[in-house]
Design brief:
Layout lengths: L22 E5 L8 H16 L3 E4 L5 H12 L4 E6 L14 E5 L2 H11 L2 E4 L4 H15 L7 E3 L7 H4 L1
Parallel strand pairs: 1-2, 1-5, 2-3, 3-4, 5-6
Length: about 160
């Protein structure tokens, strides 16, 4: 598989100079979880994104941690792009107040579109879907599909068991 350097967001341009991120893809749960810190940190991350003029790309839902971060970005005047497959648009209660919503045919197209739009990725606490999205972008990085930064927001030690 060949890569197009113009689409390879490494945090630097072809001259080696650092370039700012335009969009951060956030993987997060469709539930708020068992610890109130999860919601608090999702909202704080949303505010940090806006403060740094970074737009949010996420799964498009209005519920759970997805909804928390989207609302925080919107409430702070930021840009939010939701990417959601058609079959989940009603199941996950599609967020209707976003800057932009992209509806895809399926989950694979959703992840590919999010990866295309994002300059970096971060995972908040979540369930199996969040883990699957995270591990897929890690795998893509390992295979050389992209060279974008990937991070975890390890709220209240949520991801500790993964590394034990």
């Amino acid at each position: 598989m060949s890569r197009n350097p113009e689409n390879d967001s490494t945090g630097s341009d072809n001259t080696g100079k650092s370039k700012p991120w335009r969009y951060l893809a956030v993987f997060a749960g469709s539930q708020v979880g068992s610890d109130s810190q999860y919601s608090e940190q999702a909202r704080q991350l949303g505010q940090v994104l806006v403060k740094n003029r970074i737009g949010l790309v996420y799964g498009g839902g209005s519920v759970g941690l997805m909804g928390e971060i989207a609302d925080a970005v919107l409430d702070s005047g930021g840009e939010v792009i939701g990417v959601i497959p058609e079959f989940l648009a009603t199941k996950e209660l599609l967020h209707t107040g976003l800057t932009s919503t992209l509806v895809t045919d399926d989950m694979h197209s959703r992840k590919a579109k999010m990866a295309e739009l994002a300059d970096a990725f971060i995972a908040l606490p979540g369930g199996l879907g969040t883990f699957e999205e995270l591990f897929e972008v890690i795998t893509w990085a390992q295979l050389g599909v992209h060279r974008k930064p990937i991070g975890l927001l390890n709220v209240a030690g949520f991801y500790d068991p993964v590394f034990d």
